[in-house]
Amino acid sequence: xxxxxxxxxxxxxxxxxxxxxxxxxxxxxxxxxxxxxxxxxxxxxxxxxxxxxxxxxxxxxxxxxxxxxxxxxxxxxxxxxxxxxxxxxxxxxxxxxxxxxxxxxxxxxxxxxxxxxxxxxxxxxxxxxxxxxxxxxxxxxxxxxxxxxxxxxxxxxxxxxxxx
Amino acid sequence: xxxxxxxxxxxxxxxxxxxxxxxxxxxxxxxxxxxxxxxxxxxxxxxxxxxxxxxxxxxxxxxxxxxxxxxxxxxxxxxxxxxxxxxxxxxxxxxxxxxxxxxxxxxxxxxxxxxxxxxxxxxxxxxxxxxxxxxxxxxxxxxxxxxxxxxxxxxxxxxxxxxxxxxxxxxxxxxxxxxxxxxxxxxxxxxxxxxxxxxxxxxxxxxxxxxxxxxxxxxxxxxxxxxxxxxxxxxxxxxxxxxxxxxxxxxxxxxxxxxxxxxxxxxxxxxxxxxxxxxxxxxxxxxxxxxxxxxxxxxxxxxxxxxxxxxxxxxxxxxxxxx
Lengths: 164, 323
Description:
Number of strands of chain B: 12
Distance between the termini of chain B: 49 Å
Order of helices and strands of chain B: EHEHEEEHHHHHHHEEEEEEEHHH
Strand order of the largest sheet of chain A: 2-1-5-3-4
Radius of gyration of chain B: 19 Å
Strand order of the largest sheet of chain B: 4-5-8-6-7
Largest sheet of chain A: 5 strands, mixed
Number of helices of chain B: 12
Helix content of chain A: 25-40%
Structural class of chain B: alpha+beta
Strand content of chain A: 15-25%
Structural class of chain A: alpha+beta
Number of strands of chain A: 5
Oligomer: heterodimer
Shape of chain B: globular
């Protein structure tokens, strides 16, 4: 079985990965790199629990072969969010609004939130709902999740400051 | 997942060589990876065309809009020239699936994805389409199966873009490394009595390179009816487009291929739908020859509503369709 070598910037840290090219990005992240914040829900691209960012796009790590992520790609997982002011604001927002119930969907959910808000001011009235449509919450706690993202959107980016 | 041999095509000649050697083509991978995981797609050799940037171009000529097969749904939804010259395509692309899927899913992949029939997708059922002896939908659970097109296999075509492209009379451009072929809209998708094993007309050594959409639409409307507003499969859709040559009314998600409502098209002739009542009459004709099964009769009414609302939208009376 052939392998590919990839140099990725994951959460701001350079990583060199050697893997069979059709291995799922999800498995490389969770098993090889022990970045277990990203969850596997359905494994079929239905639930969004495995949502990560590759460059500026949200993608499903369970449907993405590692070989299709190019050399030099920037990958952001939930672990990387706390290194950013926006990610920390979202953490605060999710906590403030009580947005997490069982929590399995939250790593993917909050990556979708982050990807949306970092694109700039919301353009459409239903932008938040649309951006999270691919993230399924088994506890059906969507209302507080939406409220958390609205809360963060109102404070983005002017009041965002590093807090540690 | 089982182990695979994986190749990346660096140019069309490389892609052609891989396909001739029996490799299975991967574009965005949204559908293929699922099929590989469940074993419905048995291939263990995959060739990616994702590096072929020439298939990511969008170009406007004086006659048509040319969209590369690898353009993602997200780009289709946001690109200015698509929004200007093919607003139905941009709108449908933007409302299909989820943000995560739209970031990777391609125009070509959306049109060529395999059917979502539960019997076809399950390794437990050796159905007709997979080389078995029967289509289980006839006697089984068939709420999400076809109401048009007869058999022998009762899949519905899963693409949301395909009905729009057929209505717009797009041509599907294919290549095999040595010869380019253009398939007319009405000659690209195949019913299951014409071809059981695949839903389109591409030969095994061909790939889709682009779709050309003529800039001839004078009136257009499109409606999808879904159980949920976002991230759900439509149960019926309709794209209605009028050009100087008349109407094309194409139903989606109710037949094994994008389904033209030819009786309704003929009845409408060159009417411009000044009178909303014409839309009701045409919609009734559009479903007159539907053949529902035990569980999917309700989708005849959904299809009828989709046609009426799409025509009302095209005629400039969108609010009428909501009554």
